[in-house]
Amino acid sequence: MPAFRTIPRRSIAALAALPLLIGALASCGYGSQAKSDEKKVAAEGAKLSAESVRVGYFPNLTHATALVGDQEGILQKELGGTQLKVSTFNAGPSEIEALNADSIDIGFIGPSPSINGYTKSMGKNLRIIAGSASGGVKLVVNPAKIKTLDDIKGKRIATPQLGNTQDVAFLNWISEKGWKVDAQSGKGDVSVLRTDNKVTPDAYKSGSIDGAWVPEPTASKLVSEGAKVLLDESTLWPDKKFVITNIIVSQKFLTEHPDVVEAVLRGSSKTNEWINTNPDKATASANTKLKELTGKPLSAGVIDAAWPSIQFTDDPLAATLRAQADHAVEAGLLKQPDLNGIYDLGPLNKVLKAAGRSAASDAGLGAK
Fold it and tell me: What is the model's pLDDT at position 288?
């Protein structure tokens, strides 16, 4: 009898499985060095209920969960053989348009566009499924022209886009000062100029704006050009926490592919954990991704100044979203919305429970 027939079948199976085991062990862990292995495992891994998932985010540090999760392969690893496809946007309204047009399935986005998208579709288009970041927004000004907050009156201040989260926050702050501005035109006691974050630093250098209420890293880019931080928005909020980035999903995708949504949330949660545990590596990773997306990395001075003002969290900070909705109403950008059902934190809380963590609150605004 030939010698090979004396080998037990279970031993043959074990030998056959050995290369797969070695490959799986090699892919464990996160980091840029493992990225090629991550992609190989993803390509060969079992697909979830969708061939791919299209995720949108901004090339901003307030979206570092997406930047780092993408760069380090953490999101893709959780998705296995389901392909991650990403698109980037300048501000929330354009990302909501993409969600409405079925160009993306999931988005990292600010609270104001989330509220607008939800209310305009009468609660039929999206759900907020997690938080991502808090803070990271500043009012920066030309110190030669503006020395105090009262000096803002009569000046030209940029925000990223009409109706975006920073635009609403600035209009609300203006209103609380007792000044009048037409929300749509931006004209009034302060000139509110809606300016793409990519061109805001050039607008500042040219003198066409006197300051800006903007997210990071745009705020710190302006500081590197000689601007001064006059106000950190976090100081206006209880415990200095307010949601700056949510994760939203189209209701259709959530209904049809709950396993994919849960995988993305596992990836975002693990990314936040990795960011908070490895701040230096995370900063470098986010900057690498920004270079890929924008063609130029942030200088050390800019990113080191910007990073500490942002907190990365899975908590959607739902109570602050309700307050931001009230701000949009007061600014005249939104009629009083019915936000009941805007959150579906079931998938997130499943992920948190599996990790031995407490459930996140929807502040009474969850899907019934």
Answer: 97
